[in-house]
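Example (one chain per record):
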Amino acid sequence: MRTTAVSLSLVAAFVAASAAPAAADMAMMKKAKELKIASVQSCQSCHVDKMPKKDAAALNAMGKWLVDQKTARKAKAVDVAWLADYKAK
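Predicted structure:
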Protein backbone atom coordinates (compact mmCIF):
# COMPACT_ATOMS: atom_id res chain seq x y z
CA MET A 1 0.00 0.00 0.00
CA ARG A 2 2.79 2.40 0.94
CA THR A 3 4.62 1.68 -2.33
CA THR A 4 1.49 2.58 -4.30
CA ALA A 5 1.17 5.93 -2.52
CA VAL A 6 4.82 6.75 -3.17
CA SER A 7 4.47 5.74 -6.83
CA LEU A 8 1.37 7.90 -7.27
CA SER A 9 3.14 10.83 -5.63
CA LEU A 10 6.09 10.47 -7.99
CA VAL A 11 3.83 10.27 -11.03
CA ALA A 12 1.91 13.37 -9.91
CA ALA A 13 5.17 15.27 -9.33
CA PHE A 14 6.48 14.26 -12.76
CA VAL A 15 3.28 15.34 -14.52
CA ALA A 16 3.28 18.69 -12.72
CA ALA A 17 6.94 19.29 -13.53
CA SER A 18 6.61 18.35 -17.19
CA ALA A 19 3.53 20.46 -17.87
CA ALA A 20 4.43 23.55 -19.87
CA PRO A 21 3.34 26.74 -18.16
CA ALA A 22 0.82 28.79 -20.08
CA ALA A 23 0.91 31.78 -17.77
CA ALA A 24 3.14 34.79 -18.18
CA ASP A 25 5.58 35.87 -15.53
CA MET A 26 7.99 38.67 -14.72
CA ALA A 27 10.80 36.85 -16.56
CA MET A 28 8.82 37.31 -19.79
CA MET A 29 8.43 41.02 -19.10
CA LYS A 30 12.14 41.33 -18.38
CA LYS A 31 13.07 39.51 -21.59
CA ALA A 32 10.75 41.72 -23.64
CA LYS A 33 12.40 44.84 -22.15
CA GLU A 34 15.89 43.42 -22.87
CA LEU A 35 14.86 42.74 -26.47
CA LYS A 36 13.49 46.29 -26.67
CA ILE A 37 10.05 45.14 -27.75
CA ALA A 38 8.25 48.46 -27.44
CA SER A 39 4.77 46.94 -27.55
CA VAL A 40 5.32 45.31 -24.13
CA GLN A 41 4.86 47.89 -21.39
CA SER A 42 2.87 46.08 -18.71
CA CYS A 43 0.78 42.97 -18.09
CA GLN A 44 -1.96 44.58 -20.16
CA SER A 45 0.24 44.31 -23.23
CA CYS A 46 -0.98 40.70 -23.50
CA HIS A 47 -3.73 40.47 -20.87
CA VAL A 48 -7.07 42.18 -20.46
CA ASP A 49 -6.71 42.85 -16.73
CA LYS A 50 -4.15 45.17 -15.18
CA MET A 51 -3.16 42.47 -12.67
CA PRO A 52 -4.26 39.15 -14.17
CA LYS A 53 -5.03 36.28 -11.83
CA LYS A 54 -2.89 33.21 -12.38
CA ASP A 55 -5.65 30.79 -13.36
CA ALA A 56 -8.14 33.28 -14.80
CA ALA A 57 -6.08 35.54 -17.05
CA ALA A 58 -8.02 36.73 -20.10
CA LEU A 59 -5.84 37.46 -23.12
CA ASN A 60 -6.11 40.36 -25.52
CA ALA A 61 -5.19 40.13 -29.25
CA MET A 62 -1.42 40.11 -28.65
CA GLY A 63 -1.67 37.47 -25.93
CA LYS A 64 -3.87 35.28 -28.12
CA TRP A 65 -1.39 35.70 -30.97
CA LEU A 66 1.45 34.49 -28.73
CA VAL A 67 -0.53 31.42 -27.69
CA ASP A 68 -1.35 30.73 -31.35
CA GLN A 69 2.36 31.02 -32.18
CA LYS A 70 3.20 28.55 -29.43
CA THR A 71 0.84 26.05 -31.06
CA ALA A 72 2.00 26.78 -34.61
CA ARG A 73 5.67 26.48 -33.64
CA LYS A 74 4.98 23.38 -31.53
CA ALA A 75 6.87 25.06 -28.69
CA LYS A 76 6.72 24.03 -25.05
CA ALA A 77 6.36 27.64 -23.89
CA VAL A 78 5.67 31.10 -25.27
CA ASP A 79 8.75 33.08 -26.29
CA VAL A 80 8.29 36.85 -26.16
CA ALA A 81 10.97 37.21 -28.84
CA TRP A 82 8.24 36.17 -31.30
CA LEU A 83 6.65 39.57 -30.73
CA ALA A 84 9.22 41.00 -33.16
CA ASP A 85 6.97 39.44 -35.85
CA TYR A 86 3.66 40.60 -34.33
CA LYS A 87 1.55 42.95 -36.43
CA ALA A 88 -1.37 44.57 -34.61
CA LYS A 89 -4.66 44.43 -36.46
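Caption: The mean pLDDT is 79.
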